[in-house]
Amino acid sequence: RYIDTNAEEKMNPHAEQEAWEEYQISKATMKYGSKNKKQASDDYQFVFEDQIDFIKASVMDGDNVDLEEMDDVVEKSKAKSALEALLEERKKLPIYPYRDELLKAIDEHQVLVIVGETGSGKTTQIPQYLHEAGYTKRGLIACTQPRRVAAMSVAARVSHEMGVKLGHEVGYSIRFEDCTSEKTIVKYMTDGMLLREFLGEPDLASYSVVMVDEAHERTLSTDILFGLVKDISRFRPDLKLLISSATLDAEKFSDYFDSAPIFKIPGRRYPVEINFTKAPEADYLDAAIITALQIHATQPPGDILVFLTGQEEIETAEEILKHRTRGLGTKLAELMICPIYANLPSELQAKIFEPTPEGARKVVLATNIAETSLTIDGIKYVIDPGFCKMKSYNPRTGMESLLITPISKASAMQRAGRSGRTGPGKCYRLYTAYNFHNDLDDNTIPEIQRTNLANVVLMLKSLGIHDLMHFDFMDPPPAEALLKALELLFALGALNKLGELTKVGRQMTEFPLDPMLSKMIVASEKYKCSDEIISIAAMLSVGNSIFYRPKDKQVHADNARLNFHSGNVGDHVGLMKVYNSWKETNYSSQWCYENYIQIRSMKRARDIRDQLAGLLERVEIELASNSSDLDAIKKSITSGFFPQSARLQKNGSYRTVKHPQTVHIHPSSGLAHVLPRWVIYHELVLTTKEYVRQVTELNPDWLVELAPHYYQLKDVEDSVSKKMPCGEGRA
Ligand code: CDP
Ligand code: MG
């Protein structure tokens, strides 16, 4: 069932010329609108010649040459030669010789599985080929990415290659950030965003092609998308479906999509020398840094890619590397340190793709994102400590945590492969060969089997898919996890006893947030504090990057942070105060600077808040402010987060109420030293201990009042007994 792709046979001597012409025409079509392709093509060919002739003529006539016009022509021809250079680059990609054949296969089959190594050009080229072949005349081309950074950076690259402005013909859509317009015909988006598109347009009528890219990553959203696109492809024969993957388990995708043909793009791969450590490393971060410096000092030119597990680790490594290379003076070549992770501001993301200057060496410190989603040219050395951060979920307790976990063999292989793309490479694995063979799993477990499903269950319910047990999952989630999700949604009031969506559930679906956050917002209607609650929700959605704590000014930074916590209002209200104070200064950056607050995060919060305000309007909840009634605010929070309550223990730790587990208040919390008897928390993180983060004091009576299906009096007995000395409980 593999489509035969034979490179020699298909080397059409005219292909390049044809492709170039097609490309010019498509560019012109874009510029002049798609009505008249022939006209557009003619226009395009002459647009530069015309103007140059015009200027030549003016000069010869002795006229005053319009300098501005002259500049314009120069700019245009510069842009043209940049485009030509990019086109040359595009032609060198492994996918290029298969362009026509691929288009033919897409034309002939509704569903096609495409396999090609990372960097072969699947993500950046296929949507362009499809556009050049006219698919965009029938509808948008969607290309999904599991990661937001990948969606953004690939869209930027493709808009560049097509010579258009990002957000115009080529755009991206990620949660809370829509960089598309009426003009957009190629849309890169996170898989989660395409999932949300189904809510507004269940048959995806505005799309002509859906490319589920990086399918091998098997994120939760991708897995759900599989089921949905498979379903709509049956009644939309005109919709083309491409499933693209960087790994060779394509047969599984093919099987799932009713034996869809597989199109394999032969990769170019150079040999990679694999080195293991002789003994296990105690501190992989330190080992990675030392290895990078050793490579820099002893190995021939070539960039280094280091796989780390997250932003914090990357920042630490960056700092240590900077410190250690500072003393080296001019003895060694310059080492450029380039971090890349999901929250890295986009203007800094571009830096990793810039070519390394002559004589220097680049070291890229990346999360898993560089494993397959992003290709950085020039990497010759890979350092693989063998870990990644992975979500794990305990359906019994409903606890979700992000854990640093050993990677799979498949991941290790992908990582090594990153070094052999442009020439022979070397991979340094910071674990032993014995570890590799005996301790690592073959493949990573798909996310659907190790995550909280409340969000997707709510989404599927609102798409009218009720029988979740029989949904066409590629790999089904544990039944227990599905039940847990249904249970939570019921407790939140999103589903009724029959498992049907309620009005509250429908309102919740409108918000692109986790169900507990959505519920908190919906509940704020009752307490007339939606204005405050959306500020809190926006601040929580930004993550933990609001405050910064420079190493040399930690005390000042901590004091500034504590200012927002006076009266032990709790972290949620603290965040609200930060937002409101910033707003009062008319969104001043100076104010942020003085208070050790990241302006970028605040701007993002403002943006998210605006969008949440818009969504409130859509679900017909009035924007109401009640900032002096802290109980109203806390009750709204509790309405969403009641499953995450904890009670103080004698030793200063906490015990979660519903599924008892010991946790601690995170040191960054405003309540870390206050230790209220009862708290509600936003998230549980596992670092050196089990910490709860973003914590607010709770009146335990609210648990029974707001979640009577979930808590009984006995769960909160000690507070009840205080108030009712003769009643039930311990009195
Ligand atoms: O999807 P696949 O891994 O097959 O390849 P791709 O992402 O389309 O990358 C093709 C080429 O585009 C690579 O050589 C990348 O270096 C380049 N590229 C880039 O320069 N900037 C990006 N943001 C993405 C890709
Ligand atoms: Mg790709």
Automatic annotation (TrEMBL):
Domain Helicase ATP-binding: 103-266
Keywords: ATP-binding, Helicase, Hydrolase, mRNA processing, mRNA splicing, Nucleotide-binding, Spliceosome
Keyword Cytoplasm: no
Location of the Helicase C-terminal domain: 284-464
Keyword ATP-binding: yes
GO molecular function: ATP binding; hydrolase activity; RNA binding; RNA helicase activity
Signal peptide: none
Gene Ontology biological-process entries: mRNA processing; RNA splicing
GO CC aspect terms: catalytic step 2 spliceosome
Reactions performed catalytically: ATP + H2O = ADP + phosphate + H(+)
Tree of life domain: Eukaryota
EC number: 3.6.4.13
Similarity comment: Belongs to the DEAD box helicase family. DEAH subfamily. PRP2 sub-subfamily.
Protein name: RNA helicase
Organism: Lupinus angustifolius
Entire protein: shown range: 318 to 1048 of 1048
